[in-house]
Prior knowledge:
Shape: elongated
Structural class: mainly alpha
Number of domains: 2
Strand content: 5-15%
Largest sheet: 6 strands, mixed
Amino acid sequence: MNPRLARWLPGLQTAGRYRLPWLRHDLLAGATLTALLIPAGMGYAQVAGLPPVTGLYASIVPLLVYAVVGPSRILVLGPDSSLAPMIAAAIVPLSAGSPQRVVALAGLLAIIIGALMLLGGLMRLGFLADFLSKPIRIGYLNGIVIVIMLSQLPNLLGVDDPSGSPLGALPATLANLRAGHIAWAALTIGLASIAAMILLRLIAKTIPSAFLVIGLATAAVAALGLQSAVDVVGALPFGLPHPTLSGLLPSDLVELAVPAMGIALIAFADTSILSRTFAARTGSHVSSNREMIAVGVANVSTGLFGGFPVSGSSSRTPVVQSVGGRTQLSSVVGALLLIVFILLAPGVTAYLPEAALAAVVIAATATMFSARDVLRLVRRSPIEALLSLATTAGVVAFGVLEGVAIAVGLSLLAFINQTRRPYRTELGLVPGVRGYHDLTRHPEGRRLPGIAIARFDAPLIFANSGLFTAFVQELADRPRDPPVHTLILAAEPVTRVDITAADAIAALDDELTQQGVRLVLAEARGPMKDQLIRFGAGERFEETGRFAPTVGAAVDAITGSLRTDIAEEPEAGSDQETGPTQHPPK
């Protein structure tokens, strides 16, 4: 195959190298995947405020497209629990209650998201997936779980929800409970479905519990004639995915642009992390930029053919892997079996109770709640635990789209805080150990007469330049006998310097010079030197010989002697002892 074509269509490359022993595993994985896709697709479509059939369309098209253009062999694309409420928040307020218009808006939203991802991938913006730290992602996902479960309570109880929002669903549900307005048949079906799914998962995680529960609930409603006593999904329309973009307005593009950016970021972040995780398990590598392009193409495709925004599925991908799926063929098989279902048995859902569908969604999302991860954060990093909990509260209290903004904002604040207050310390001599070490970690170490050695473990930028100068000045001012006459900055951890920090270093040098203290930069990397010179602060150090290759070289030049408390390194091939155990500088 042409290497350029294989680069853009990895699925075709896999097909050309396909091995017959893989076929049995891929067929089984595809069949299992179909059993999951039907209830999940319909359930997440309902959460997104869309007709259930659109969830099947949003499963078929992305699976087929990603199988050709996606870099991962087993990643499953489709409707996702974290995106569904975001989609609803974006499109339902613009739909004016029209089923046709809400579907068209969902398709347009998917196309915008896909276009943004395509552009991002071509511009090599795959690194954006790293902007959401793990604590923020844990908090965001926990918020999504709470929002989804609240939104499904009315369907589980068979009651009306006039609020139309997840937060409003809780008081509406409580009001119906107090008034006794509960559809007991729906509640019985819902609770029985949840119990059955829990029991089946305890027996074996590979059992398609959602599919079995949906099948049993549908059969029970049909056999007992309960379709008039409980709300049912209704028969699916006959036909394959098709364009449904009529009735859109130019203003819709403007209204959906901002939500699309937030959803695109979350969709790509989820997909990228999932893809990398499973690639690592197989010893392969997946390019974030290629992943972004592939997910973009899949979203544009599903938007054109009656679907809605999709991302990698964190619940269905592990199942495909656990039952032995080897290649993209498992996704193709799953999509083709979905088409067979739509064409041959669309009327089955006329008996599918919405309570059972709500139970499937609740049971599926409940397993995503990361209480253990939050407790782990509380024990190990209370500040990051607070950030995670704040993200959860933001998603639940203000809405999913607003929660995205809160999550991104908190991630940036956490990054700025870590950069603004990095670790900084004074180094000293530890007898018998090469190098100069952190005195807070080595109480047996000692300071050198008249010399202070500072280390600042971060890039020097506008956010921390004040902290840096205050730290260095404090070391220079600290009472000693004799007083400090030379201050050495161990600059190896300083990977970059911006113009604000460069000016701060120049001002610090001037101030120390007036105090009779000489500032020396040791172990400064080439890029740092270049930046200091470009910003006009480097010449003073270069022209006066105050760039030292190492801290040890700077100390030796100042003292005029070499250290005598450590043994010389043996020559190559020598059997001599190297003296005391050597430790790297810390």
